């Protein structure tokens, strides 16, 4: 893979990850257009490392706000951590249940079947984009009486929806979780902060999973595993830097549109993108 390809993918990831339009779908489509295999272990790990770059952008962007909402006192910190842990736990249960179901229905119980094999399916990507678009538009149109925080009940529901997003590229995690928060009456800014705090918790787990997958595949296919892994990780680190910078720019755009009543426009984009991707199937 060339550095220019890494740069393109990192910029696409950085902007799309922090906008509710599914970064994974956009990166996978960019990979396919460049003749790369989005289901290959090296590519799925690269995608996760690009996610890591945007995760750091999220931390930098929200740090001042999180000091007030999450670290104001020990009591408040404990309450917020409990909600994040509950939501992440529900995500894990739903994600594993979906993985089991997909493995037995789509993979016909094949022990070698991997969920990543579906990541290049443009029909699934189109469906995910459409689902995200409908959810975003619905959350923008439905009027709710907003509360002041994420409750235990809403954290369970948001975690459940996040779990549904995991296997399906195109079903934007941030779009789905922020929209779910809005539909549950969680204020816009708090929904945004909670969604990206969940991303910070979830990303290291996904990195570990994809790193293990790559190591397993490299051990079977490459005689020089260490050299091959070092090359992949060096490219990933370069991509992380670019996605971090692009992510900071995207966060300002997202916050501006979310707080100024333009959230529905992201939903409209997802629907148009869905039709475009479907036409490529």
Write the layout of secondary structure elements.
Layout: H1 3-17, H2 23-33, H3 41-69, H4 74-105, H5 122-141, H6 152-165, H7 173-183, H8 188-221, H9 225-259, H10 263-279
Helix pairs in contact: 1-2, 1-3, 1-9, 3-8, 3-9, 4-6, 5-7, 5-10, 6-7, 7-8, 8-9
InterPro entries: UppP
Keywords: Antibiotic resistance, Cell membrane, Hydrolase, Membrane, Transmembrane, Transmembrane helix
Transmembrane segments: 40-63, 84-102, 122-142, 149-170, 229-251, 263-280
Describe the fold and architecture.
It is a multi-pass membrane protein. It is found in: Cell membrane. It catalyses: di-trans,octa-cis-undecaprenyl diphosphate + H2O = di-trans,octa-cis-undecaprenyl phosphate + phosphate + H(+). Its EC number is 3.6.1.27. This protein has 281 residues and is an all-alpha fold. Helices cover 78% and strands 0% of the residues. The chain contains ten helices and no strands. The protein has helices at residues 3-17, 23-33, 41-69, 74-105, 122-141, 152-165, 173-183, 188-221, 225-259, 263-279. Helix 1 (3-17) packs parallel to helix 9 (225-259) and helix 8 runs antiparallel to helix 9. The longest helix is centred in the C-terminal third of the chain and has 35 residues, at 225-259.
């Amino acid at each position: 893979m060339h550095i220019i390809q890494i740069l393109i993918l990192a910029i696409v990831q950085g902007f799309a990850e922090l906008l509710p339009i599914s970064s994974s779908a956009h990166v996978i489509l960019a990979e396919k257009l460049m003749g790369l295999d989005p289901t290959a272990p090296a590519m799925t790990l690269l995608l996760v490392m690009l996610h890591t770059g945007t995760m750091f952008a999220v931390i930098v962007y929200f740090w001042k706000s999180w000091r007030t909402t999450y670290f104001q006192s020990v009591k408040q910190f404990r309450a917020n951590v409990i909600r994040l842990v509950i939501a992440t736990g529900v995500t894990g249960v739903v994600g594993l249940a979906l993985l089991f179901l997909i493995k037995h229905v789509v993979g016909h119980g094949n022990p070698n079947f991997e969920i990543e094999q579906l990541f290049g399916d443009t029909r699934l990507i189109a469906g995910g984009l459409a689902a995200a678009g409908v959810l975003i538009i619905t959350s923008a149109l439905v009027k709710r009486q907003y509360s002041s925080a994420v409750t235990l009940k809403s954290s369970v529901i948001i975690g459940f929806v996040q779990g549904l997003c995991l296997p399906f590229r195109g079903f934007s995690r941030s779009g789905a979780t922020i929209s779910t928060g809005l539909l549950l009456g969680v204020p816009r800014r708090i929904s945004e902060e909670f969604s990206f705090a969940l991303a910070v918790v979830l990303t290291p787990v996904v990195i570990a999973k994809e790193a293990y997958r790559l190591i397993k595949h490299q051990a079977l296919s490459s005689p020089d595993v260490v050299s091959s892994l070092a090359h992949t990780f060096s490219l990933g680190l370069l991509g992380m830097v670019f996605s971090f910078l692009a992510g900071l720019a995207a966060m300002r755009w997202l916050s501006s549109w979310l707080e100024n009543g333009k959230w529905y426009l992201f939903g409209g984009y997802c629907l148009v993108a869905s039709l475009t991707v479907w036409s490529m199937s």
